[in-house]
Amino acid sequence: MKKVVIITGASQGIGAAVVQAYRALDYRVVATSRSIQPSSDPDILTVAGDIADPATAQRVVREALATFGRIDSLINNAGIFIAKPFTAYTQEDYANVLAVNLNGFFYITQLAIAEMEKHGAGHVVNVTTSLVDHAIDGVPSVLASLTKGGLNSATKSLAIEYAKRGIRVNAVSPGIIKTPMHGEETHATLGQLHPVGHMGEVSDIAQAIVYLENAGFVTGEILHVDGGQSAGH
């Protein structure tokens, strides 16, 4: 029976690349995002909805089980980043970042792990950011650090809690990746924020997630894919 992965934030950028990477591994994919369109691939089930809403998480898991019968992996890729000076954040900004980055992780991960426990195996990957470890002057990132830093810590905590139950939990911590979020005119400037001198590609993150998927002895790992950002400047 083919394995099944749920991928959040799956309609573009990193998420879309991760969908293709798991199809290449012959997984069935449950892909969710607010704007996701139906797929012509019978092994890709799309579920549109706001991952911050617990009802979306319930629907994704329910439809995954109804269509494919199991859940083997969960990739928590959905996230938002609002770059503003700290004192310029509005209550709405704060609520939105917490809703997507933390609530979006909590509800679906809780449901997915409950299913993984039933067959004593599973894998969760959280996509975070290297800004958590290495803040950069001129890139205001308090809300990213508050939420994604929480996910890094939760990754280790869950890894230990479920280590003896066959469920692994890891994180991929990207640098700045070429996605539709960043216009091409910004690429040169953003590239210079990395010691290697250029931005990352979505394929870099997808490959890191595939590595973790296949790395049965790796759990609780925060894998930095960031052109050296977290190592220093």
From TrEMBL:
Lineage top rank: taxon: Bacteria
EC number assigned by the record: 1.1.1.-
Record CDD domains: SDR_c (cd05233)
Entry's family note: Belongs to the short-chain dehydrogenases/reductases (SDR) family.
Top-tier EC class: oxidoreductase
Pfam families (alphabetical): adh_short_C2
Keyword Oxidoreductase: yes
Gene Ontology MF: a single term: oxidoreductase activity
Statement: the UniProt record of this protein carries the keyword Oxidoreductase: yes
Keywords tagged on the record: Oxidoreductase
InterPro entries xrefs: NAD(P)-bd_dom_sf (IPR036291), SDR_fam (IPR002347)
Designated name of the protein: SDR family NAD(P)-dependent oxidoreductase
Lineage summary: Bacteria, Pseudomonadati, Pseudomonadota, Gammaproteobacteria, Pseudomonadales
